[in-house]
Amino acid sequence: MTIIFHTPRLYLRRFTLADAPLVQQLNSDPAVLRYLHEPPLETVEHAEEILRTIILPQYENKLGRWAIHISNTHEFIGWCGLKYRPELDEIDLGYRLKPSAWGNGYAFEAAQHTIQYGLKELQLTCITGRAHVENTASLNILEKLGMQFIKEEIVDNCPVKTYIIRNK
Ligand SMILES: CC(C)(COP(=O)(O)OP(=O)(O)OC[C@H]1O[C@@H](n2cnc3c(N)ncnc32)[C@H](O)[C@@H]1OP(=O)(O)O)[C@@H](O)C(=O)NCCC(=O)NCCS
């Protein structure tokens, strides 16, 4: 198992192809997908394809979406991480948790340490965060992280609020 870092209550690790059932379950939950511009993942085979073609290749440059586990129980609760978006030339902060794990500050904790890892360990100059204008839980996280609101815009056909945080 490749652990990226620990936080007070969590650890984040790289996904592997064996995680396809976890990814399929997460990405087929309507509550999770509510503000996301993507269709539900119907099968484990499709989840395996997403892992092979999208998630795992991002690990080549130390970035990527990482599986989040609760340290005490090892329960998988979702993912958080940094993704390079070549079409925007940006490093994007993202997070997605199972509804059963919401409301505990886990997403904030994972995102806070992901930003620290990106700025300190990877020496990134800037990280971008975006959320749908109605996704108040996610906007709340971006605000609490101390990210700076830049603008409202349409990205991937969605109205979003865009935030950034720069390296000092
Ligand atoms: C966005 C998402 C990750 C937010 O999850 P969340 O659990 O609401 O967010 P947090 O982890 O920050 O938890 C927030 C709440 O936990 C509570 N909490 C409990 N214990 C806590 C602790 N030790 N530390 C911090 N917060 C704690 C607080 O009430 C806090 O709310 P507040 O900041 O208003 O006080 C979740 O809704 C999700 O996965 N949605 C689906 C995917 C998605 O939309 N992703 C974002 C795309 S832009």
Structural class: alpha+beta
Mean pLDDT: 96
* CATH class division: Alpha Beta
Q: What order do the strands of the largest sheet run in, or round the barrel if closed?
A: 1-2-3-4-5-6-8-7
CATH topology: Aminopeptidase
User: Helical segment tally?
Assistant: 5
Oligomer: single chain
What gross morphology would you assign?
A: globular
Number of domains: 1
Instruction: Name the helix and strand elements from N-terminus to C-terminus, one letter apiece.
Output: EEHHHEEEHEHEE
Identify the CATH homologous superfamily. Gcn5-related N-acetyltransferase (GNAT)
CATH architecture: 3-Layer(aba) Sandwich
- Strand fraction: 25-35%
Overview of the molecule:
- With 168 residues, this protein is of the alpha+beta class.
- The protein has helices spanning 20-26, 30-33, 44-55, 106-121, 136-144, and strands at 3-6, 10-14, 64-70, 76-85, 90-97, 126-132, 148-155, 158-166.
- The chain has one domain: Aminopeptidase (3-Layer(aba) Sandwich), CATH 3.40.630.
- Helix 1 (20-26) crosses helix 3.
- The mean pLDDT is 96.
- Bound molecules: coenzyme A (COA).
- Residues 32, 35-36, 95-97, 102-108, 131, 135, 137-138, 140-141, 144 line the site of coenzyme A (COA).
